Amino acid sequence: MPKKTVYKATIEHIQILDEDGKLDASLAKNTLTDEEVAFLFEQMVIWRHLDEVAFKLQRSGRMGTYPQNKGQEAAALGSGFAAKKGTDFLVPCYRENAALFLHGLAPHMILLHWMGDERGNQIPDNVNCTPISIPIGTQMLHATGIAWAYKIRKEPRCVVTYFGDGATSEGDFHEAMNFASTLEVPCVFFCQNNQWAISVPREVQMASETVAQKALAYGMPGVQVDGNDMFAVFKATRDALDRARKGGGPTFIEAVTYRLADHTTADDAKRYRDVKEVEAWTKKDPIIRHRKFLESKGLWSDKKHAEVEAKAKKIVDEIIKTAEGIEKPSPADIFNFTFAEIPEQLRIQRDTMRTNSLGQDPSQTGLKPEHAHTR
Amino acid sequence: MPELNLVQAINQALAQEMERDERVVVLGEDVGLNGGVFRVTEGLQAKFGRERVVDTPLAESGIIGTSIGLAMAGMRPVPEIQFEGFLGPAYDQLVNHAARFRTRTRGAITIPMTVRVPVGGGIHAPELHSDSPEAIYSHSPGLKVLMPSTPYDAKGMLLAAIRDPDPCIFFEPKRVYRSFKEEVPEGDYEVPIGQAKVVSEGDDITVVTWGATVFQCLAAMDELPDDVSVELIDLRTIYPMDTDTITESVRKTGRCVVVHEAPRTAGMGAEIATVIQEACFLHLEAPVQRVTGFDTVMPYYKLELEYLPESPRIVQAVRECLAY
Asked: Which residues 224-283 of A have a C-beta within 8 angstroms of B?
């Protein structure tokens, strides 16, 4: 029996808007209208400003550790815009804030999360997303499960789940991909390949040439797009969602982008990353190319930009005021959400937490109540 | 003698052991060029190369599973899990493999591996960066569980752990990573696994704790009246536990308070209280007290100090126990 090829595949890379703001008109057909680009670009400017202010809040001690989204806004906005608000569901990591905002999440909630307050995760019923997920590469299984439920109930809904290049090293990622493709669930796996998992570059993280090709092993279509190009991101995500909605199963999208900031405010990327590389990617910043595109269409100007920046400042000021105006939660909240109904032993811990050492049974203590200490 | 903080002491121990024993390899997320997110492995890759200080893919199960293989093949892996909250994916490898190989092969295969893990709360960190899971692993037969609280102990215990023939989890209380320095000998020394330390001698009451809460207990002692004589024990090794040091102390004082960050139910305090009643029942003047975290999820940082056993709660427990 002669040798024969039993499998062959290629991975496509899609770019529609290049870093100089030049559009491939034929590929851009049936993607974003000029007005939509203008709207999304305004969002980009606003949420970039929020991101920069969040960084400053951490530096001035007003917020805990924060992972900046800077540079990845096109990936978040293009994909988030492709998903149907109020119908589809987003399962994020923590570097796609703008997508969540498009789907109606109140921006102050993201700040509240990083201010060390669980209420930042208390997603209202009318917003279709899960909260930020901290343990890397775990949430894609939840996305698969949610999509599975839609399939079981024959609802025309899809899930988009976000994660980074590093997350594809976790076992849970592979389990999610395999479940999703074997069960043919309506889920889009959106990988923001921002080139770095804290200090580990993509080529150290994996030996494969692309992240997208990992999809092929699961019998799932995999595509690579320029993640700083909203047209390409939108097109790939919309096509994947259309396919999923028709029962065609999951798709994997690798959005090639770049983490322009440190991993988090607790990180210092200068320790491990070449400044020249950052400079090169700064030129590919999605803000630059989308502005150039809109200017070429006569839809943007310095004056318009100044107006939007002023608007951004006002919006962000308000968001911060809201987040910081929320009073510290009640200590009882530590207990009240552990179960639907609080077990008796936990109720006692809650009700005595300020007066009891959580030690001796009160009937066994030698101290009289007047000695009871209060905090 | 040079003064080092906890981070520097661990770094020195790793460097010296890598120098002494070429089988030792350090692996984990960001441990190489970046020197670890807490800089514990800083400079090691520059000194020992990429073959021995390895930035692994982002996969905790992978890190521990391959460390088991390295250990089986005669290496001495010292994997790092970046935060205790990320031990989850590695649980299967730790508990179902590392801990059991010696037993299930009747000693034919052993896993000399030391898993370094920053642990505990109090640093305003995000979710899953502040937990205290030491009881979980102490309840998993076949693992040794260590948690030094001082630079001197950290160096000596880490050297002992790496040289130990069995898998050790070396918890590093991140709240005290840089909180103080103390004299640490430059030379080689071991602090034996399974030996508690009497931090301060006393006659009236025994306080048993470990990790960062040692310092909360010391703060509490400052708030107590001068005539209260507290014997403070830093357990240092959670498993195997130095029950002799505890029971000898309680036979002397007749009273004991156990303090830990982890939740109360099935926490190590429960085990220690039981050991005491088994061994010192007739010496007890009061029931053993526990000052612990609550039986809840570790809260985000706005409320973390409400959760952690800070000195007022410890003072209260000591006074209650003394007044019994």
From this structure: 266-267, 271-272
DSSP state of A124: -
State the CATH number of the domain containing residue B177.
3.40.50.970
Whether B124 and B27 map to the same domain: the answer is yes
Range A327-356 burial, b when 16+ CB lie within 10 A, else e: eebebebbbeeeeeebeeebeebbeebeeb
Report the mean per-residue pLDDT for chain B: 97
Using a CB-CB cut-off of 8 Å, the residues of chain B touching A369 are: none
Contact A218, A185 (CB under 8 A): no
**Mutant choice from A119, A138, A358, A371 vs B, greatest count of B C-beta within 10 A:** A358
Contact A141, A163 (CB under 8 A): no
Assess whether pLDDT exceeds 50 at residue A375. no
Total length of chain B: 324
- Per-residue pLDDT of B165-221, as tens digits, reads 999 999 999 999 999 999 999 999 999 999 999 999 999 999 999 999 999 999 999
Which residues in chain B have Cβ-Cβ distances shorter than 8 Å to A335? Answer: 294, 296
Q: Verify that B139 and B26 share a domain, yes or no.
A: yes
User: What would the pLDDT profile of B58-104 be if each residue is shown by its tens digit?
Assistant: 999 999 999 999 999 999 999 999 999 999 999 999 999 999 999 99
Residue B12: give the domain boundaries: 3-183
Set out the domains of chain A in order of their start, with CATH numbers: 13-325 (3.40.50.970), 333-371 (no CATH)
Query: Which residues of B are known catalytic residues?
Result: 129
C-alpha span between B118 and B175 (Å, rounded): 9
CA distance B57 to A197: 9
CATH number at residue B214: 3.40.50.920
